[in-house]
Amino acid sequence: MRRNFTLKMHDYIHRPEGKRKFNEELFSEVAPRYDFITRALSFGRDKRWKDELVANLPESESPSCLDLACGTGDLTFRLARRYRRGRVVGLDLTGAMLELARRRNFFGNVQFVAGQMSQTEFADESFDIVTGGYALRNAPVLKDALEEIRRVMKPGGTGAFLDFSKPPNRLLQKVENVMLKAWGGFWGLVLHRNTELYTYIAESLKQFPDSSQLKRHLEQIGFRNISSKKHFLGMAETIIVRKM
């Protein structure tokens, strides 16, 4: 049954706790359509981007992997297929997403847990690999999330993150914002009769650092060997980092 999503994003997303609440409610609402909408918003390219992200991770026999904001398990299951002798944990804030992910799971090396990416409650240096698909942009406080990622990552570990990307040029930022609002608003009306759900992408990107600033933030936290690949005319980006 369709839930009645009534939250107004501007009442919530400018405060860390409000953004966390908005994200939990939003992704509970969109969970049944999440796999479809990620394909639709990317014109079907999301699958290839995720395949490439996992293919570019290090060769390893049995790494421990953490997939942040795992949603319905798209990246989590790719990690499980790539590292069949590894341990893979998918973490998400939203119970509805985790329910769908657990229902889809047929891998013996995958575990799904509820939690926040800024407070995972895992021990220091627990994971060789940390991934996130459309995760960092949704962190209530980005610095907290990056510090937590570094804390739970083993020395020499790898982080790989796919998300929408904001260009440094302000004119291009405005063009991108208009495009994302129009495309997201269209799908919000079609699927939910509510533009708030997917125009949130454009609004959250306003709060997010541009692609150059994000790399500086990663360096300041202590990540090195930062590489990136832009997708879809620069509107999305995969970033891979190492903890030295």
Give a structural overview.
With 244 residues, the chain is α/β, with parallel strands linked by helices. The protein has a single domain (9-243), classed as Vaccinia Virus protein VP39 (Rossmann fold, 3-Layer(aba) Sandwich). It has helices at residues 16-30, 34-41, 46-55, 74-82, 95-104, 142-152, 170-192, 196-207, 211-221, and strands spanning 64-68, 87-92, 110-114, 127-133, 153-164, 223-231, 236-243. A 7-stranded mixed β-sheet has the order 3-2-1-4-5-7-6, with helices on both faces. Strand 2, helix 5 and strand 3 form a beta-alpha-beta unit. Helix 3 (46-55) packs parallel to helix 4 (74-82) and helix 7 runs antiparallel to helix 8. The model has no long low-confidence stretch (mean pLDDT 96).
Please report the distance between the alpha carbons of the first and last residues: 48 Å
Strand order of the largest sheet: 3-2-1-4-5-7-6
Number of helices: 9
Structural class: alpha/beta
Q: What's the total number of strands?
A: 7
CATH superfamily: Vaccinia Virus protein VP39
Task: Summarize the model shown.
Helix content is about 45%, strand content about 20%. It is α/β, with parallel strands linked by helices.
